[in-house]
């Protein structure tokens, strides 16, 4: 991880103007029992969610679990069937246009105009957001500087590389100085260097008091978020800081512990470990293994001794957390369906 | 309000860049109507001429030759062959080598001299109704004239009709067709181009980003209309110039009046195209629908077929098609030399239609994914 966590505190203009210095506890998103339906299909199921000002909030979940749907609903493009949603304290149902003036959005797929140049795309969006000439120029210069996109301004957007497309999309999403930015899988298909640059940029924005709502599939990105939510089949299974999630009892049931195992031939060990009594779960991470085992077991009980072996206690990774929670949810659903089938 | 205008302007400017950045599409949309005009302008001639005809003259007398000459003099009939049996005569028509046949029976001269009715058989291929109708008219006229000549001798005709054709004295087909063609071509272009305008954003996913902004659905529709108005006006002037210079159709009224009346028509066509675009989910579907709206306009508007002779139901249907009114206005200005005061009804009807269509199109469009 880069050192961008330790960005010096920059005073926040909005907070000053509003005379609200307790910016950190201001609720930017407040969703209460939000449900979204497409016909009879329940895409989002009674989700509660609060995102605070200046937070970098990460939403994780498999494809089709409702992440994009939820973002679209916060922007007023899809209605909540039931529940109550507020963004900046405004009702999403009634004040969608006012909310849209203050949010930025960067979609999964590059959704700017491929046949326009980078500059033309920017000009279009400053026009759409109703920025004055001087205001638009200043803001553009600022963002061009921030992203370093200057050499590519007159390039047709469709011909930019993935990383630069993302940066252009970022610029266009920020032109109107939004207070909340939704980023839907912003780093999908972007190379690792560009990915890190983008996250550096996100933290710089967060330091300015901008709230960021990011969806991702990358665990390292989830680790960098202030708080993380995990949504699975439309249900928000858990919500908290990465450290909190790793301490969840559901993930660390009493009487079990986790090991990180380095073994000479990890593949073979992986297969044998899985069949051993007292071993709850084994996952491979490159050449190391993560195992969840009964608390009383010692490495020698499982034959994890000798030259080349190294076993030490480990805390669960975020991936462990999400996989465990998904499995438990599947088991619950299965039970529910069985019960429904009987009655 | 000011911001709203700025947003409309931004959408319009961006849409114009899209059009200009795709020169191939622009070129074809501008050039195809011109090619079509050349084809239609030169090829279509509803005045029947030189119909291929075979002759079966069993009589072979001075009287029969005189009758044949009368047919030839009309220029409607062109004798392509002479045949010697009914069977052969029939074959020529069935095979399509001739559209008509004239059979003069053996007793033609004899009956004529005896003061009895001399019969001439004229067979016509009914599969081409215009040609058939014309040949029937021509043969009736010739029979009538020959009869009158026979009865009256040198005396004067008791009644004579003197038709006076106003505005298009030579009854040139081009003069009838091209003012209509001008409208239909521009309609085709306006609807098919604008039908892509929104569905393209759906296909490329750019609509999602756009919907996240404060631009309203109405601003989006209005902004997108401008570039298409501009492009279609350019096309309109080009086609009108060719009509006047190459096809020598005189513009008897003010061209500016025509440009003025064209605006509400254009708004309704682009409004229609955009309405299609909001409904369709792919560009192919949008194009199909666009063509679908153009076809009734072609057939019912009086562009090809005079609608005064349509069955009542279709006549009423034709009245609610903007093209019907626009084509009549176009002919009114170009051929009849009419001015805006003569076409007041047309102007009112076209503006009403434009407002209704654009309003319906814009109000049906919702910012929802």
Oligomer: heterodimer
List unreliable stretches of 5+ residues of chain A: 1-24
Strand order across the biggest sheet of chain A? 6-7-8-3-9-10
Largest interface (CB within 8 Å) is between: A-B, 29 and 27 residues
Shape of chain B: elongated
Q: How would you state the average pLDDT of chain A, rounded?
A: 86
How many helices of chain A does DSSP assign?
Answer: 11
Tell me the strand percentage band of chain B: 5-15%
Q: Estimate percent helicity of chain B.
A: 55-70%
Query: Strand order of the main beta sheet of chain B, please?
Result: 2-1-3-4
Largest sheet entry of chain A? 6 strands, mixed
**What are the low-pLDDT stretches of chain B, counting only 5+ consecutive residues below 50?**
none
Instruction: Please give the radius of gyration of chain A in angstroms.
Output: 23 Å
Instruction: Note the main sheet of chain B.
Output: 4 strands, mixed
Total strand segments of chain B? 4
Overall pLDDT confidence of chain B? 89
Distance between the termini of chain B: 26 Å
Key words describing this protein structure:
heterodimer, A: 343 residues, alpha/beta, 6-stranded mixed β-sheet, 4-stranded antiparallel β-sheet, disordered N terminus, B: 4-stranded mixed β-sheet
Write the layout of secondary structure elements.
The complex is a heterodimer of chains A (343) and B (369).
Chain A: H1 13-18, E1 27-38, E2 41-52, E3 56-60, H2 67-74, E4 82-87, E5 90-91, H3 96-100, E6 103-106, H4 118-128, H5 133-147, H6 162-174, E7 180-184, H7 192-207, E8 211-216, H8 219-224, E9 227-232, E10 235-240, H9 242-246, E11 256-262, H10 266-275, E12 279-285, E13 288-294, E14 310-313, H11 318-342
Parallel strand pairs in A: 3-8, 3-9, 6-7, 7-8
Antiparallel strand pairs in A: 1-2, 1-4, 4-5, 9-10, 11-13, 11-14, 12-13
Helix pairs in contact in A: 4-6, 5-6
Chain B: H1 2-20, H2 23-43, E1 51-57, H3 62-73, E2 77-82, H4 86-94, E3 100-104, H5 108-113, E4 121-124, H6 129-152, H7 173-204, H8 206-211, H9 217-245, H10 255-279, H11 283-300, H12 312-319, H13 322-334, H14 344-364
Parallel strand pairs in B: 1-2, 1-3
Antiparallel strand pairs in B: 3-4
Helix pairs in contact in B: 1-9, 2-7, 2-9, 7-9, 7-10, 7-11, 7-13, 9-10, 10-11, 10-13, 10-14, 13-14
């Amino acid at each position: 991880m880069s050192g961008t966590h330790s960005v010096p505190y920059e005073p926040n203009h909005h907070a000053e103007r509003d005379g609200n210095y307790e910016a950190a506890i201001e609720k930017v998103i407040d969703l209460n029992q939000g449900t979204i339906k497409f016909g009879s299909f329940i895409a989002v199921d009674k989700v509660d969610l609060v995102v605070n000002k200046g937070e970098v909030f990460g939403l994780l979940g498999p494809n089709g679990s409702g992440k994009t749907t939820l973002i679209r609903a916060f922007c007023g493009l899809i209605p909540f069937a039931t529940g109550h949603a507020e963004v900046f304290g405004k009702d999403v149902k009634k004040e969608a246009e006012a909310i849209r003036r203050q949010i930025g959005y960067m979609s999964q797929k590059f959704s700017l105009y491929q046949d326009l140049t980078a500059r033309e795309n920017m000009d279009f969006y400053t026009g759409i957001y109703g920025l004055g000439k001087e205001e638009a120029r200043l803001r553009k210069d600022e963002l061009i500087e921030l992203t370093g996109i200057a050499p590519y301004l007159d390039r047709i957007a469709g011909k930019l590389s993935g990383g630069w497309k993302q940066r252009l999309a970022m610029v266009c999403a920020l032109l109107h100085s939004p207070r909340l930015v939704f980023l839907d899988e912003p780093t999908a298909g972007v190379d690792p260097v560009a990915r890190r640059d983008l996250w550096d940029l996100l933290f710089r924005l967060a330091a300015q008091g901008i709230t960021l709502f990011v969806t991702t599939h990358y665990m390292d990105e989830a680790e960098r978020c202030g708080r993380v939510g995990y949504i699975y089949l439309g249900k928000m299974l858990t919500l908290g800081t990465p450290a909190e999630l790793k301490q969840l009892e559901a993930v660390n049931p009493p009487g079990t512990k986790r090991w990180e195992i380095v073994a000479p031939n990890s593949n073979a060990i992986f297969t044998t470990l899985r069949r051993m009594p007292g071993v709850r779960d084994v996952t491979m991470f490159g050449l190391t293994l993560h195992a969840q085992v009964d608390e009383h077991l010692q490495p020698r009980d499982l034959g994890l001794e000798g030259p080349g072996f190294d076993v030490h206690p480990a805390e669960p990774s975020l991936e462990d957390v999400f996989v465990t929670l998904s499995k438990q949810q599947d088991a619950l659903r299965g039970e529910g369906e069985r019960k429904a089938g009987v009655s | 309000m000011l911001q709203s205008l700025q947003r409309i302007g931004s959408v319009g400017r961006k849409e114009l860049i899209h059009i200009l950045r795709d020169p191939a599409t622009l070129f074809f949309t501008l050039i195809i109507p011109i090619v079509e005009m050349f084809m239609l302008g030169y090829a279509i001639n509803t005045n029947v001429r030189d119909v291929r005809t075979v002759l079966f003259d069993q009589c072979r007398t001075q009287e029969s030759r005189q009758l044949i000459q009368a047919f030839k003099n009309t220029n409607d009939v062109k004798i392509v062959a002479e045949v010697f049996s009914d069977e052969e005569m029939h074959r020529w028509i069935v095979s399509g080598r001739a559209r008509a046949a004239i059979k003069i029976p053996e007793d033609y001269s004899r009956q004529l001299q005896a003061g009895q009715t001399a019969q001439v058989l004229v067979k016509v291929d009914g599969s081409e109704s215009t040609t058939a109708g014309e040949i029937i008219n021509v043969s009736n006229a010739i029979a009538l004239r020959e009869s009158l000549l026979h009865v009256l001798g040198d005396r004067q005709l008791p009644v004579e009709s003197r038709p006076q054709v106003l505005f298009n004295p030579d009854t040139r087909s081009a003069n009838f067709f091209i003012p209509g063609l001008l409208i239909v071509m521009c309609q085709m272009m306006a609807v098919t181009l604008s039908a892509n305008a929104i569905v393209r954003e759906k296909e490329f996913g750019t609509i999602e980003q756009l919907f996240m902004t404060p631009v309203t659905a109405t601003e989006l529709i209005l902004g997108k209309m401008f570039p298409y108005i501009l492009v279609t006006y350019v096309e309109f002037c080009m086609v009108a110039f060719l009509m006047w210079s190459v096809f020598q159709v005189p513009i008897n009224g003010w061209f500016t009046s025509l440009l003025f009346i064209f605006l509400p028509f254009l708004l309704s066509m682009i409004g229609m195209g955009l309405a299609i675009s909001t409904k369709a989910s792919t560009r192919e579907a949008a194009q199909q629908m666009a063509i679908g709206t153009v076809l009734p306009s072609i057939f019912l508007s009086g562009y090809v077929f005079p609608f005064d002779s349509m069955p009542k139901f279709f006549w009423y249907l034709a009245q609610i098609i903007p093209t019907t009114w626009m084509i009549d206005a176009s002919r009114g200005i170009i051929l009849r030399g009419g001015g805006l005061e003569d076409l007041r009804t047309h102007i009112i009807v076209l503006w009403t239609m434009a407002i209704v269509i654009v309003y319906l199109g814009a109000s049906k469009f919702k910012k929802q994914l």
